[in-house]
Amino acid sequence: MKRNSIRAYIILTLLLNLGGIHLTHAEASFPSRPLTMLIGFNVGGSTDVQGQVLAQILTEQLKQPVQIIYHAGAGGGAAAAMLAESQDQGYTFQYGLSLPYTFTPLINPASYSINSFRYVAGITLDQNAFITGPNKPFKTWGEFIQYAKTNPGLIYASQNAQDRFVIQRVMQRENITLRIVPTSGGSGMAPLILSGDADIAFSGGTHSIYTDSGLMHVLASLADERLAYYPDVPSLKELGYEVSVHAIRVVAVPANTPDSHVKILAQALKNVSQDPRFQHITEKRIKMPVIFMEEDELNTLFSNQLNEYQQLISESRHLKNIPSALDDKKNNRWAVQE
């Protein structure tokens, strides 16, 4: 697997001009050449850690090499836009959290919509959380809120538009002021938290690498329920905020991908979800539950989430202005998640 930082339009040109290998029987027609897996975040975050193992197992399952291309930006949205333009019908697919499909097009101008893709399978339940570092005078959500009330201007490390919406709701309700700064995903967030330069942060999974050693502490779950590996930490909904950022890690392909290709990919991903290597990296290393959700289940879930996020956005548009590094037009670009 080669790591590649070629610009999107160059990558697309290469992908669209790859030649196929002509096989003699129809059952083996897909895949007949190497595949490309897009990861919409930087190297070093939890999606990268997991994605490398995923690519290895898919290579074995599909009998074709699976190359990873990292195309970071807009919390996975840049890679989603790239995928939406592809005519590669399953030879190019994206792996990562579902928010770029269900949330990002609702708040930022985008060249795609949720209908631009087919969602082959969901294989991991994301574990979004608010976290803090080792030397802060708070270790719980309640302690953080009390400290923030008497210490305005604490630094909050944001990774995407979604977590910014949530933290704005918190600030409005609690009448606190945080300074929001963008980070380059989990690999960019971690140094800020570990050094103490940021007081709290959003994390989509990178925190799991540091919690056992006490270098990071989970303050609140952003999922619909408590996190599987942090059962003592309440969710924001439990705390009365009526908001969540519930995401599934999915494989998505362009909408024009035929059923036969989707079926083959889905079966391979089902096998991946049962592979001990994938289970180990997911459950032991990044501490996320392995699941398997088929296309129909995902379509129903995402439709329901769209309604929830539209309500969240409508309410958030009425929030007061919050001091933020992102208010500077030179920095007005969302950094990436993990």
In short:
The protein is α/β, with parallel strands linked by helices.
Total number of distinct structural domains: 2
Main sheet attributes: strand count, strand direction, barrel closure: 6 strands, mixed
Q: Order of strands across the biggest sheet?
A: 2-1-3-10-4-11
CATH topology of the largest domain: D-Maltodextrin-Binding Protein, domain 2
CATH superfamily of the largest domain: Bordetella uptake gene, domain 1
Strand content: 15-25%
Query: What is the chains' assembly state?
Result: single chain
By CATH reckoning, the class of the largest domain would read Alpha Beta
Number of H- or I-type helical stretches: 12
Globally, the shape reads globular
Average of the residue pLDDT scores? 86
Q: Helix content range of the residues, please?
A: 25-40%
Write the H/E string, N to C. HEHEHEHHEEHEHEHEHEEHHEH
Structural class: alpha/beta
* CATH architecture annotation name of the largest domain: 3-Layer(aba) Sandwich
Number of strands: 11
Tell me what you see in this structure:
By secondary structure, this protein is of the alpha/beta class. It has 2 domains: 35-126 and 247-318, D-Maltodextrin-Binding Protein, domain 2 (3-Layer(aba) Sandwich); 129-244, Periplasmic binding protein-like II (D-Maltodextrin-Binding Protein, domain 2, 3-Layer(aba) Sandwich). 38% of the residues lie in helices and 18% in strands. It has helices spanning 8-16, 46-62, 77-85, 99-102, 104-107, 141-150, 161-174, 186-195, 208-211, 259-273, 276-285, 295-316; strands at residues 35-39, 66-70, 92-97, 117-125, 129-132, 154-158, 178-182, 200-203, 217-221, 248-254, 290-294. A 6-stranded mixed sheet has the order 2-1-3-10-4-11. It has a 5-stranded mixed sheet with strand order 7-6-8-5-9, with helices on both faces. Strand 1 (35-39), helix 2 and strand 2 form a beta-alpha-beta unit. The longest helix has 22 residues, at 295-316. The chain is globular.
